[in-house]
Amino acid sequence: MAQKPSIPKGTRDFTPDEMVRRNYIFDSIKEVFQRYGYMPIETPAMENLDTLLGKYGDEGDKLLFKILNSGDFLNKADDGLLAQKDSNRVTGQISEKGLRYDLTVPFARFVVQHQNELSFPFKRYQIQPVWRADRPQKGRYREFFQCDVDVIGSDSLFNEVELIQIVDEVFQKLGIRVVIKLNNRKVLAGIAEIIGEASRLTDITVAIDKLEKIGLEKVNAELSEKGLTDYAIAKLQPILSLSGSNSGKLDQLANILVSSEVGTKGVEELREVLTLVDSLDVETGVEMDLTLARGLNYYTGAIFEVKALDMQIGSITGGGRYDDLTGIFGLKNVSGVGISFGADRIFDVMNQLELYPPEVTTTTQLMFVNFGHKEGAHCLKIAAQLRNEGLKVEVYPDSAKMKKQMTYANKKNIAFVALVGEEEMNAGTVTLKNMGTGEQNSVKVEDIIGTFSE
Amino acid sequence: MAQKPSIPKGTRDFTPDEMVRRNYIFDSIKEVFQRYGYMPIETPAMENLDTLLGKYGDEGDKLLFKILNSGDFLNKADDGLLAQKDSNRVTGQISEKGLRYDLTVPFARFVVQHQNELSFPFKRYQIQPVWRADRPQKGRYREFFQCDVDVIGSDSLFNEVELIQIVDEVFQKLGIRVVIKLNNRKVLAGIAEIIGEASRLTDITVAIDKLEKIGLEKVNAELSEKGLTDYAIAKLQPILSLSGSNSGKLDQLANILVSSEVGTKGVEELREVLTLVDSLDVETGVEMDLTLARGLNYYTGAIFEVKALDMQIGSITGGGRYDDLTGIFGLKNVSGVGISFGADRIFDVMNQLELYPPEVTTTTQLMFVNFGHKEGAHCLKIAAQLRNEGLKVEVYPDSAKMKKQMTYANKKNIAFVALVGEEEMNAGTVTLKNMGTGEQNSVKVEDIIGTFSE
């Protein structure tokens, strides 16, 4: 009995229809990246576990897919640990490699390993799958694509501005209306400082991150629970209720944070980025948002997040500046900034809002119906000529029933079929049928190409 | 002490230079596939071990990279086997998934699993990495790319012809001179039959496969060793020394194989394919070659192999017809034919023969040198305009030393840099420097784009 085939939980096959749409998204994004001088790299699916472990927290270590060593892998395992079935400690003895968990750590590893070949600032993009042994659920996969763009080796704020321009262009190109939220880790540190709770930065940001969801009152309650003094909470209120334009908010914030060096630096950075963005042709709204705190332990300056306006789906792109990404691999004091486009979520938005231009679904432009060996062989020649002129052409390979051939053309969204029987062969013509309208025309072989360039 | 980063043996990073060249190869190949109506699919990196095991022989099973189950994986392992350290039998208890070993088995699995969504004949291409725990050596990697094109669900020889056209176009496009070798499994079966050794088909083909390398005498010795009668070996001689044109060889072979039904069918198939190819505009030489026996246990009709003429590197593309690929997954009697382009070998040939067109190495077209914040901010605006007009433009993000900025532009092969100081800002111009010739010109901002479209 043959096995019924299936694929691992949380993984996906991509059919031609899906591939064409995904490639449209990736190609659109890549084209923008390239217009700004970013270059592609790729890293191996497998990394040494040394490279991966300890970079994503304990939870992340558990979610790494580990590769079993080849050959007699149990040979090196400890008898005692095997007898105790201590999976945790045996893992390191029977596995040395894992599948990449994100593109950031491999990128840091790449930069350190190739530092002498690269010219800095190094501007790269990378679009590859990553793997996580997460519990699969709707919209969350065990294999999914990341699409990262980073510049490393420059602390100029021009880079932050450029990433905002890129986000703007990508989503305009794709037709997704978005807002870009902008914050700065230094501002958050300044706030914690001036309310006298510098050591509680994480608690504070975790709480105010929920402002939109749970409201001011509950945020204050949570802060109180976490042990913030009433004084600190009272001092935080005007910050939480900042409103108005970006520049209005910045002016208020500058006053509030005047006594904090790091906070003032953060305000200056935000102001410079927003001023430069205003001077450029950026159509997407950029909103200062103090509640934005993603990846706080990691980012050191700007923090970005992009939200779709016409669909509830959370963040579809995000990133920020990090000052010591490569330090873990021994290259210190290299500042970088980057963003990651959420390919799967963008795919979901494009599908739900039906944002693909019509040409994205078209495939073969013309199919020759096969009436028999002699007629088919004749069509092969015409097809070869038309392909030389750049047309996408198929000859149906079997002289199957007309209905079957037409169904094939329909399913594949082929716009025109050519019917060539003995009569057409003798006359040097084809009968061209528009599959959309059903209209049929007799066309000379040499005039076929013209009907497609009209 | 920070770790010195490295990647697993037999895997590779691809730098921007390499990526650009590899993408050129893949894009060229894809464009040809699409012109013939082939559509892309992708399958997950991980497959269930059920899907993979037993499909590549015992050796293949050993070379599969297996993924360790998540969580407390030892829990399900047998105490006795663990105590004996029986790696072989423990594997199946602690691992359920493996990395794909080729694209063929996942494709068969895909076709069976999605048979109700697909329209047949199904024409697909697939370009993805595969993984094998082979001993790494020069030119052999543990992660490498395959690039497969197949049509499944049609036994028309038009498909074989189309694949030859595709090979011809791909290698003409890439500029690699090749010869296409063609054989047919049915002819080999016919030969074994008429010399009275039908059961020794494999021994015979393994021996004659070496004809070119070791010569006729040694081939005969090997056949004798394998137990072929002197009668059989004598009867084989005229076949081994067939010469002349394809049609000459076919005429001789037709005579020799006249009493074998399967052999005669094979000759007819070869003749039809070669006749059709002759009638089309195929420039690459197609040579009938009876010594070609690749993947014999697998192919049932045509067998293809492509060799580069200007470099000794073995086969760079190959394939054939298989009549029961999907049978292992329960879908019987579906015939297909396909070829696989050896991406890594093609990459090696392109590199060694330096076959890339000059535009493949170009990246950013124009870089603005950064003389300071004010000048840089001014350049950001000009750069944004130029990108809108389709140019690939960078603004160097830091106001670093001139030499550093120029070195960056040089290393990245940027053709032009623009110098914009206070004077140029006031005059609405830029000083455009051709990095190749060193020539400098003052150009109005609105005329920059024109100098690139000349």
Describe this structure in words.
Chains A, B: L-histidine binds at residues 102-104, 132, 146, 150, 294, 298-299. Chains A, B: Homodimer. Chains A, B: GO terms for molecular function: ATP binding; histidine-tRNA ligase activity. Chains A, B: This is Histidine--tRNA ligase. Chains A, B: It catalyses: tRNA(His) + L-histidine + ATP = L-histidyl-tRNA(His) + AMP + diphosphate + H(+). The structure is a homodimer of 454-residue chains. With 454 residues, chain A is α+β, with helices and mostly antiparallel strands. Chain A folds into two domains: 16-64 and 101-353, Bira Bifunctional Protein, Domain 2 (BirA Bifunctional Protein, domain 2, 2-Layer Sandwich); 362-453, Rossmann fold (3-Layer(aba) Sandwich). Helix content of chain A is 43%, strand content 19%. Chain A is built from 18 helices and 16 strands. Chain A has helices spanning 16-35, 49-52, 57-63, 79-83, 87-94, 104-113, 158-174, 185-194, 201-208, 211-225, 230-240, 246-256, 261-279, 343-352, 373-388, 402-411, 422-427, 448-453; strands at residues 39-40, 46-48, 66-68, 95-99, 122-131, 143-152, 178-184, 285-288, 302-308, 315-322, 336-341, 366-368, 393-395, 416-419, 429-434, 440-444. In chain A, the strands form three sheets. The first copy, chain A, has an eight-stranded mixed sheet. A five-stranded mixed sheet of chain A has the order 13-12-14-15-16. Chain A has a three-stranded antiparallel sheet with strand order 2-4-3. In chain A, strand 15 and strand 16 form a beta hairpin. In chain A, helix 8 runs antiparallel to helix 13 (261-279) and helix 9 runs antiparallel to helix 10 (211-225).
